[in-house]
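Protocol step 4 of 5: obtain the predicted structure for the target chain.
Materials: sequence only (see below). No template structures provided, no constraints applied. The aim of this step is simply to have a reference model before the mutagenesis design in step 5. Sequence pasted as it appears in the construct record:
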Amino acid sequence: MIQRIQTIYLLLAVVLLAIAFLFDGIWTGAAAAEYAWFVPVTMGLLGLAAAGGVTAVFLYKDQPRQRGFVVLLQYLTLLGLALLIGANSLAGGWGSLTANASFSTWASVGAPIIAYLMFLMARRGIDKDIKLIKSMDRLR
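Step 4 output (structure tokens):
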């Protein structure tokens, strides 16, 4: 099951995106009160990225497809993070959010950022595997 280090990165990204759901600091803020679409759309995007991260682990036999899927997950995570930051900026600015910020607020915002970095590291690991396979095919 564990092909290389990218599996660990993918699973860490899934755990980090799940952490964003556990803490409700950002989901009950000004953006959630002002925009009705904010919570379902943002949670949907981040949840889809988390479910895709689990799916990407099982695509280890087809590395180019796995790489493309991880790139898609990076875009979903960035889009969810942009909505998270943009809606909170429009709703009342980060000043009101960070003035009384707790750990749950920072965890809700920081977890998707670190998850994106984990997806990036997984993509780099997949790229290394693709290069290794191509070099082994040249030797045959």
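Step 4 remarks: The chain is about 85% helix and 0% strand. The chain has one domain: 5-139.
Proceed to step 5.
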